């Protein structure tokens, strides 16, 4: 079933993740880890003239081999009168394995059939594979929605709002912030951005602040999805962040 044919939007779990480097500074990596990070970023070092140590601040939390998930924000829609209500919560913590286990327990319990979907912005390139790879690292069995190896494209239950906006343009990358701006989707002003997450986590030790930021991105993704489908967005009074 194509994503644009979904009638029951409660079958979709909207999500966003926040990630940080597994260690904050390049110097904290062991000798082997530092060498492997340098190898992975070799072409970018040659292209930019930056060292592996300089790149680590930007890339350490982007590569799933060198980072960890500290927050997964999730949201679900339900019918409310002639529109929808949205409930958003998050799984967050320092123990990545425990966080991932709670998230996969949710998928196994409530999103485990062929008519369920995951939706994120740039989710196909980032959020979904990141979660799956970190589950493998921690020996957590992949739930049905993430166990996509060998599936045909139309059998994979992934919706990506960035892909919906691209209309087949494979070179297109458009940020969630830009799309909400040009499409007139109201979003709360944030005191941090994705670039601040590692600092807020390691220096400020403020996971709740990160979780709040993550949940706001889930709300923005839901509103963008509805806007792209030509449906009314969720009214502010029908949005619950818990």
Explain what this protein looks like in three dimensions.
With 242 residues, the chain is α/β, with parallel strands linked by helices. 39% of the residues lie in helices and 18% in strands. It contains nine helices and six strands. It has a six-stranded mixed beta sheet, with helices on both faces. The longest helix is centred in the C-terminal third of the chain and has 22 residues, at 207-228.
The Rg value, from CA coordinates, equals 18 Å
Q: Count all strands and give the number.
A: 6
Low-pLDDT segments? none
- If helices are DSSP runs of H or I spanning 4 or more residues, what is the number of helices? 9
Q: Please, what is the oligomeric state?
A: single chain
* Mean of pLDDT: 93
Strand order of the largest sheet: 5-4-1-2-3-6
């Amino acid at each position: 079933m194509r994503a644009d044919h979904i009638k029951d939007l409660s079958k979709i779990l909207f999500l966003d993740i926040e990630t940080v480097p597994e260690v904050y500074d390049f110097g904290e990596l062991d000798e082997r880890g530092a060498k492997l990070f340098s190898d992975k970023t070799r072409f970018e070092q040659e292209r930019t003239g930056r060292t592996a140590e300089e790149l680590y601040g930007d890339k350490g939390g982007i590569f799933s081999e060198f980072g960890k998930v500290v927050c997964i924000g999730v949201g679900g829609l339900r019918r409310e009168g002639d529109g929808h209500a949205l409930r958003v919560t998050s799984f967050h913590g320092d123990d990545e394995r425990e966080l991932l286990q709670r998230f996969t327990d949710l998928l196994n319990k409530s999103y485990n059939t062929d008519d369920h979907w995951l939706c994120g912005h740039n989710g196909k390139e980032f959020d979904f594979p990141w979660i799956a790879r970190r589950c493998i690292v921690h020996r957590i069995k992949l739930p049905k929605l993430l166990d996509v190896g060998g599936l045909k494209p139309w059998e994979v239950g992934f919706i990506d709002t960035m892909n919906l906006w691209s209309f087949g343009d494979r070179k297109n990358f458009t940020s969630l912030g830009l799309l909400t701006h040009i499409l007139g989707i109201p979003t709360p002003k944030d005191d941090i951005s994705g670039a601040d997450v590692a600092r807020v986590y390691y220096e400020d030790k403020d996971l709740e602040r990160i979780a709040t930021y993550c949940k706001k991105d889930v709300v923005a993704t839901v509103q963008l999805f509805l806007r792209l489908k030509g449906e009314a967005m969720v009214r502010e009074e029908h949005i619950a962040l818990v």
